[in-house]
Amino acid sequence: MLKSCGRKLLLSLVGSMFTCLLVLMVEPPGRPGLALGAGGGAQRALQSLGAAGPGPGQGPPGLRSFADYFGRLSRARRELPAAPASPPRPPAEDISARDVFIAVKTTKKFHKARLELLLDTWISRNRDMTFIFTDGEDEELKKQARNVINTNCSAAHSRQALSCKMAVEYDKFIESGKKWFCHVDDDNYVNVRTLVKLLSSYPHTQDVYIGKPSLDRPIQATERISENKMHPVHFWFATGGAGFCISRGLALKMSPWASGGHFMSTAEKIRLPDDCTIGYIIESVLGVKLIRSNLFHSHLENLHQVPKTEIHKQVTLSYGMFENKRNSIHMKGAFSVEEDPSRFRSVHCLLYPDTPWCPTNVVY
Ligand code: UDP
Ligand code: MN
């Protein structure tokens, strides 16, 4: 009996060692990848990875079971520290919310499902500086929001449709004359106070590109130089799902590759999504480095790791799903998780307790 147990134990030990060895072999350490993913959130980064993996037109590689799972886990661990990358910088310029242009990308099917939450929360305090870029007419939305721009881009989640919206965002920013361009998705909460504070530590006339990468290494891509000539490039980019900002000084320099129809043709040249194209223009073409900030958050990272005591210091937050599990910040707040699954209403009450619909006497 004992002998047979011993043999079983030995066999299972050998078995698990073999499995670990297999996992290590299948997942080469040099492959770029995701932080802890979140539902559809993986899609944009996976589209990006498509450029690093198979050739043009072959589409994104799917998640490769075990290897991807372990890969994501270890990257999530690497993402762990949520502390700011660098100590607070002294103010460089006295700016206010009026100097910032926040572009929110959305699509008609999310006007009710996602935008309403933003309009009730952070946008309600920042109507003039917020510009909503969508793809369909909505009279109701126009009553609720001050700046709604129908881009007439296709209502799809394709690379082309997303780039079409980013191109319009860029042109409208240049037209606005404001000092800073910031882009966010419709599943982001923006803490405008901390955003303005962060941006005021950089002069808007200099080259500034600030945000958070979703990959742990530069993305590898190929740029099309001519009909049958390709050239390898690698660069960092700030993930659009966490939001990013660009100074006016830098945005003006991007014009030959980003204004008018140029953004779409640049995106075609590297066949990558909108946020990667921004990184390509800035890092690869103009040679300006991305400034990393851990104050921006997408649902491609484990949002549970944002410390409860630091929530008010973050610039952007997000929420999403991962394998049918909710990925959102962890906080005790004015509302229960059932009432407020994104936690955005609770964050808003923490930041603006005088909001009429926020309960009074909440202990955080
Ligand atoms: N989006 C869009 N068209 C679509 C689907 C999504 O413009 O058909 C926008 C959406 O409103 C959001 C962004 O693209 O601002 C990212 O979409 P989502 O959060 O669903 O996916 P992710 O890229 O984060 O995986
Ligand atoms: Mn998203």
From TrEMBL:
Its cofactor is Mn(2+). It comes from the Eukaryota. Its main location: Golgi. It is found in: Golgi apparatus membrane. Residues 1-25 form the signal peptide. It holds the Pfam family Fringe. Its EC number is 2.4.1.222. It is a single-pass type II membrane protein. The keyword Disulfide bond applies. Keywords: Developmental protein, Disulfide bond, Glycosyltransferase, Golgi apparatus, Manganese, Membrane, Metal-binding, Signal, Signal-anchor, Transferase, Transmembrane, Transmembrane helix. It catalyses: 3-O-(alpha-L-fucosyl)-L-threonyl-[EGF-like domain protein] + UDP-N-acetyl-alpha-D-glucosamine = 3-O-(N-acetyl-beta-D-glucosaminyl-(1->3)-alpha-L-fucosyl)-L-threonyl-[EGF-like domain protein] + UDP + H(+); 3-O-(alpha-L-fucosyl)-L-seryl-[EGF-like domain protein] + UDP-N-acetyl-alpha-D-glucosamine = 3-O-(N-acetyl-beta-D-glucosaminyl-(1->3)-alpha-L-fucosyl)-L-seryl-[EGF-like domain protein] + UDP + H(+). Residues 94-343 form the Fringe-like glycosyltransferase domain. It is an enzyme of class 2 (transferase). Belongs to the glycosyltransferase 31 family. PANTHER family: FRINGE-RELATED. This is Beta-1,3-N-acetylglucosaminyltransferase. It comes from Apteryx mantelli (North Island brown kiwi). The gene is LFNG.
